Every structure is written in C-alpha cells, then in structure tokens.
Amino acid sequence: MAQTAKTRVTAATPWGTATVVEEAKVAQRAGERRFATVCQLLEVADGERLVWIACTTDGTVRRGPVTLRAKDIERLVDALAKQPELARMLAR
Fold this sequence. Notes:
The chain is α+β, with helices and mostly antiparallel strands. It has one domain (10-91). Helix content is 21%, strand content 47%. The two termini are 20 Å apart. Mean pLDDT is 88; it is low at 1-5.
C-alpha cells in the first residue's frame, strides 16, 4: 500500500514512529470467530525497515502470538505477491 505524504499511515514501535510502507492482510475464521492477520512493512525515520505481524478482531489490533494454518499461509503468500517490498523483507 503506497502512501502519499497526505495519507501516510504511521505506527508506534520501540524504535520510534514508523511509516507503513506496505500491508498484507489475511481474513481468518475459527468456528464462528472471525479475525485477520496483518503483516506490515514499516520504515522508521532513519530508513531502517521493520516487519510487524499482528492479529486483529473487529478491526482492533490484538497483541500476542499470531497463528496461521497452512491454507492461511498460502493466502498470505498470495497477498504478499501484491506487496513486493514486504515480500522481499520476509524472504531474507
């Protein structure tokens, strides 16, 4: 997800405020529970890039471990195909 200066999305990290460069999102379901895993490529002021992975429910980010089933990983790989910089970071 490319951002312009006006629509720049930021995230707080231990390294300071970071800009969201790209994002891949995978909707998931366990029984009746619906949630999503979000994978973001972030960039802090000095240019260092970070990868952030989280789980969301009802659009709210939840801390804690993220669990992906094999079919969810396949869908994440498909979503990463549309986010080349994030895919390169994860391939390192």
